[in-house]
């Protein structure tokens, strides 16, 4: 059932990519900031659809990789999908604040804002490099690995690579040329999803190393969150504006992103061991989709920092009000991100407890950890309560499962 859900995502993702490309108001030649400023609602719709497309590509490509046991292509593709493509989905969200800035200021101020964002080392090394490299490797290596191990026919690799290549070359060209890549990917993924729907290979447990890696990621995730909290600008009980310590703000955003992202392979490892199609399946789906959105939201910290450093207070307030007014983004990305991630991190240990795979207090600790994140992340010291409780909860789940 889990892998069939992944096949649904595999078929739906390129369709959303097609719709996102068609909705992009900045296709063709011209200044990006002026083009999106003329149609901010279209730019926000494009960003939301594009982000959702890449979020769904993650479980979709993982469904293809799940039964593969190769020693090179499949493992590299698995890492690229989980840590590269998921990061790339977050990179897309930079456009939300950029659209608000472009709709508010003139060209000179927008250029200063854009230059400031481009100068952040943590964003370049921690987001752009792994995101762009992972994006390419995920789309290239996954179909090759699936063909190499004979899960699908050679035709799928040809179509998938052709579709990605066309999108890579013509994504910002005028319609209809820009639509050719997503259209080819849509056909290829739909056909392969239908053909694999009843394939017994999808019932294979897959290589054991993925669960071992997932277990380590589950322990590393709260540690990364703790580092993210400790590097926040401010004091033990107070968070200061990012511009007071730009280097710390950049590091904090990266480690918070990394922490939420590391939970994804960990949650997948835990829920794979929970039998049945009930709470375990729902918990895994809610947590994974929520976390794939939520880790990407941390990139907004860099945009906030750039706004603080380049715009005066009155303009900053106008930009913030404009960005907050994008209801489509709030309802379809921001709200599902926080609700899905935090609720999912409670539901997963709860499902493990119900299956007899964790002590009862693990679910309680996870719930208290989420509450602490919402109420106590007010400074470096108070913010450590949530990572500590989440670490205790998930370490208990792993300990029981290792018996």
Automatic annotation (TrEMBL):
Record field: transmembrane: 44-65, 77-105, 125-147, 154-173, 179-197, 213-236, 248-269, 281-305, 325-350, 357-375, 381-400
Signal peptide residues on this chain, from the entry's feature table: 1-22
UniProt superkingdom: Bacteria
Presence of keyword Cytoplasm: no
Keywords, in A-Z order: Membrane, Signal, Transmembrane, Transmembrane helix
Tagged with keyword Ligase: no
Protein's recorded name: Uncharacterized protein
Organism: Asanoa iriomotensis
């Amino acid at each position: 059932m889990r892998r069939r859900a992944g096949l649904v995502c595999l078929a739906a993702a390129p369709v959303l990519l097609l719709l996102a490309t068609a909705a992009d108001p900045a296709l063709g030649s011209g200044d990006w900031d002026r083009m999106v400023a003329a149609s901010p609602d279209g730019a926000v719709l494009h960003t939301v659809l594009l982000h959702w497309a890449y979020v769904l590509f993650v479980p979709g490509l993982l469904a293809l990789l799940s039964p593969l046991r190769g020693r090179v292509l499949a493992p590299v593709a698995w890492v690229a999908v989980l840590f590269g493509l998921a990061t790339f989905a977050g990179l897309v969200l930079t456009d939300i604040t950029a659209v608000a800035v472009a709709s508010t200021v003139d060209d000179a101020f927008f250029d200063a804002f854009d230059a400031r964002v481009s100068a952040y080392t943590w964003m370049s090394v921690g987001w752009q490099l792994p995101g762009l490299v992972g994006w390419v490797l995920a789309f290239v290596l996954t179909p090759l690995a699936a063909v190499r191990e004979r899960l699908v026919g050679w035709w799928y690799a040809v179509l998938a690579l052709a579709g990605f290549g066309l999108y890579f070359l013509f994504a910002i060209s005028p319609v209809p040329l820009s639509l050719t890549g997503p259209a080819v990917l849509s056909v290829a993924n739909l056909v392969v999803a239908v053909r694999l729907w009843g394939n017994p290979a999808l019932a294979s447990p897959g290589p054991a190393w993925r669960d071992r890696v997932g277990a380590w990621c589950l322990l590393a995730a709260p540690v990364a969150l703790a580092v993210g909290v400790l590097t926040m600008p401010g004091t033990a009980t107070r968070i200061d504006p990012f511009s007071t310590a730009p280097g710390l703000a950049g590091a904090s955003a990266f480690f918070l992103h990394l922490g939420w992202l590391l939970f994804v392979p960990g949650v997948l490892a835990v829920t794979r061991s929970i039998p049945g199609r009930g709470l375990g399946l729902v918990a895994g789906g809610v947590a994974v989709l929520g976390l794939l959105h939520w880790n990407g939201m941390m990139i907004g910290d860099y945009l906030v920092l750039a706004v603080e450093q380049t715009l005066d207070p009155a303009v900053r307030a106008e930009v913030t009000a404009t960005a907050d007014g994008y209801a489509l983004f709030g309802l379809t990305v921001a709200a599902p991100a926080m609700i899905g991630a935090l609720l999912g991190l409670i539901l997963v240990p709860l499902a493990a407890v119900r299956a007899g795979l964790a002590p009862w207090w693990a679910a309680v600790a996870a719930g208290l950890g989420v509450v602490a994140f919402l109420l106590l992340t007010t400074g470096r010291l108070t913010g450590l309560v949530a990572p500590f409780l989440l670490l205790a909860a998930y370490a208990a789940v792993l300990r029981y499962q290792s018996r």
